[in-house]
Amino acid sequence: MAKKRRPQTKAAAPQIKDGEIPVVGAREPCPCGSGRRYKACHGRSAAHAVTELVQRPFEGLRGECDWVALRELVPAATVELKLKDGLPEGVPSVTLATVLPMAWPALRRDNGAVLLGLQNDTASGDLSRDLADTLRRALAAEPGTPVAAERAAADGPRLQDLLDPAAPFEPQVHSGFEFWVEDAENATGEVAASLERANAAAIPTARLDGLEGAYWCETPEKNHLRWVMDHPEEKLLDALARLHAAGTSALGEGTRLVGSFRAHGLVVPVWDLPSGMAADDVAKPAAAFAERLAAALATDAPLTAEERRARGGLTNRQVTLS
């Protein structure tokens, strides 16, 4: 026997437009008056919008490739940020950090300086807007306090609105997390123990000078070069395939282009390197590869059969980084 449908006492109420649907609990009745739960009604499209909003959140920022690398690849790094309107009174500096203690979104030091954490979960589909909201709240926070995560307003500013577009973006990669505390050399007790634990888990990483988005890292079995590139994806994959088919995609003896992955709308080619190949050793071969890649990117000729096979092999070998 079919269940009787309960009368909807609010059915005659004016219908709320899609853009006006407030966020409610997933199991609560949808405010549109449909009688369905929010999760199964307007909540479905809202959840989809959250995940689909911005594919390249750092597009338009100086150093987009390095932003992506610091977000996804680099354990410990900092960058001094410049604001369009200058620093507020009482804030001597603003520093972007890959991660902060306790995974805090941001921290206002005792001296008023602001640290903004990059490797945090965010509440919306626009990482840039979430970070900008955290930054604004950190600038106004009391000195000596962390800043909690909150949902940013949908019409709030983005990093592109707050940061000085002319200021250089120059990451400083660290071997550990001593930048967390102002006097790390004299840290004792739990602070020293926390630093030791964090440092032990950090993979040795270095940025290649003069090559935006290129980062060497050391792992127990082999080393890697992971290079965030902002070229259009299809054109970049074609160019990599041309070089791979020609036998010029490697970075020297014992090295191999093993594939690529996507991060925040950009493609990240990955090379395996011998365990004895340090960052300084790969810098010159990588610069030479950049020249070969530029020439391949400038080629518009259709891919040959061999190049198409190489392209298929590269796209099938996706690298998952832990």
Describe this structure in words.
This protein has 322 residues and is an alpha+beta fold. Helix content is 30%, strand content 16%. Strands 5-3-4-2-1-6 form a six-stranded mixed beta sheet, covered by helices on one side. Strands 7-8-9-11-10 form a five-stranded antiparallel beta sheet. Strand 10 and strand 11 form a beta hairpin. The relative contact order is 0.11.
Sum up the structure in keywords.
single chain; 322 residues; alpha+beta; 6-stranded mixed β-sheet; 8 helices; 16% strand; globular
Largest sheet: 6 strands, mixed
Low-confidence stretches: 1-24, 47-51
Q: How would you spell out the order of helices and strands?
A: HHEEEEHEHEHEEEHEEHH
Radius of gyration: 24 Å
Number of helices: 8
Distance between the termini: 53 Å
| Count of distinct strands | 11
How are the secondary structure elements laid out?
Blueprint: H1 42-52, H2 64-72, E1 77-81, E2 94-97, E3 106-108, E4 114-117, H3 127-140, E5 145-147, H4 159-162, E6 172-173, H5 189-201, E7 205-207, E8 214-218, E9 223-227, H6 233-245, E10 256-263, E11 266-273, H7 279-297, H8 305-316
Parallel strand pairs: 2-4
Antiparallel strand pairs: 1-2, 1-6, 3-4, 3-5, 7-8, 8-9, 9-11, 10-11
Brief sketch in words of this structure:
With 322 residues, the protein is of the alpha+beta class. It has 8 helices and 11 strands. 30% of the residues lie in helices and 16% in strands.
